[in-house]
Design goal:
The protein has 147 residues and is an alpha+beta fold. 41% of the residues lie in helices and 22% in strands. The protein folds into 2 domains: 11-43; 50-146. It is elongated and about 65 Å long.
Length: 147
């Protein structure tokens, strides 16, 4: 690991612990040359998951894209950033736990909507309206009656 201060590649691990979400390992390091400390995180390198879009295109799964969609749906709701991060982590774990390396975007949308539903009805409706492609007010009314 290269020191971010002096560029030396000699460092010692001073402390190791699991991250809060247990998806990475946090390591506190000390540079052998300049003696400054810095933190690194290790994650398991996963096999790339391919998302099959509605129009048939395929693209690599992007957790940032998922997070952005959830953040948009949760705008001005009581859903915290830590709850959003938990949802993103849970969905990514579920996706990577499935057999195969391909998943349809509508399946990711369904998983996301189900996780938003108990946290915020407003965020759920916002997300569902995009994911299910609501076309008019009638679609919103139907979904609201279900809630």
């Amino acid at each position: 690991m290269k020191c971010p201060y002096c560029g030396s590649s000699n460092s010692d691990v001073v402390e190791t612990r699991d991250s809060e979400d247990l998806t990475s390992i946090r390591r506190r390091r000390e540079c052998s040359t300049c003696k400054k400390r810095f933190t690194t995180y290790e994650r398991v390198e996963n096999v790339d998951v391919v998302v099959i879009k509605k129009d048939g295109r395929r693209e690599q799964f992007d957790r940032n894209k998922l997070r952005t969609g959830i953040v948009r749906a949760c705008y001005k709701t009581p859903v915290s950033t830590s709850e959003i991060e938990t949802i993103v982590n849970e969905i990514e774990q579920e996706i990577r736990g499935k057999e195969g390396i391909e998943i349809e975007s509508k399946e990711i949308g369904k998983m996301t909507a189900e996780k938003l539903k108990p946290l915020s009805k407003v965020a759920y409706i916002r997300f569902a309206s995009v994911y299910r492609e609501f076309e008019d007010i009638g679609d919103f009314k139907k979904e609201l009656k279900k809630l």
